[in-house]
């Protein structure tokens, strides 16, 4: 959504709420040309959905007073991510919901209060405008849920066959309070590991949506913004050691990142990890490992042992953490390793994956 298709536009779109008539059924190359077709697309679809005073200026940047940011903390957090998920609609979400939730969560796991997002689109010629409207509406609703504002963006259109319908890039700005210090190197021996619910739901939902298996299942992606849950956890315990959202690579990858950064051992109990039977079944059929399967609404938390029960109770009281569980502990040795105590009483190493179990998962 080019925020400046011309240097002469004003805030009239925001103040009058009057939008251009737009009745095109498919995206064409003209919609990325910078001319009237592009202006109509931006005005009728993007500005209509994301309407706010800053975006409506259509400047080449969004501007904020430092006082506005400093009211929330003393450190600025900045993140960016690109989303190429296939298919673009899946049970429990779509590429638009994923783009907002993913970037909000990347800010929140660093202890930041997410405030502002950019949102840029690469559209393939021939994309159905109805699909674009649906995705934009999803972005609007997810941003509202997360309490963030989309303040600037960009739109490009590429020739048919040069992309897969739609790719989205989002960047996010948040602010971290002075008493928060989250990081993967903070783990200490005796700390406890928690997760806010079942693992692998997003990866399994994508597999199902791709139609490669004739499986009748109601698995839904766990895609959602988690900043509200994380804020509640930090309210209970500001000195949580580490938080990370377990997206590509699943919880095994996150735990390995924690182990490498802290030079500690993470010992996980297989019987304690929440896992839906449907997800387990898909993994068994396809030979996938649920510990490496993607999530889009799960965080792994490392917390001091004496705070674990209070934080767990806080998580379970929140809508995004009802199935939260303590799944393991941090040990001094063996260093830089993740070990899994299996349901049979044995122990195996959970190492980093060399490749990716499922491409284009987010």
Give the terminus-to-terminus CA distance. Answer: 21 Å
CATH topology (level 3) name of the largest domain:
Phosphoribosyl-aminoimidazole Synthetase, Chain A, domain 2
CATH architecture of the largest domain: Alpha-Beta Complex
Low-confidence stretches: 4-16
Rg over C-alpha atoms, rounded to the nearest angstrom:
22 Å
What descriptive keywords fit this protein?
single chain, 2 domains, alpha+beta, globular, 362 residues, Phosphoribosyl-aminoimidazole Synthetase, Chain A, domain 2
Question: If you had to describe this structure to a student in words, what would you say it looks like?
Answer:
By secondary structure, the protein is α+β, with helices and mostly antiparallel strands. It contains eleven helices and 13 strands. α2 (about 35-50) packs parallel to α6 and α8 packs antiparallel against α11.
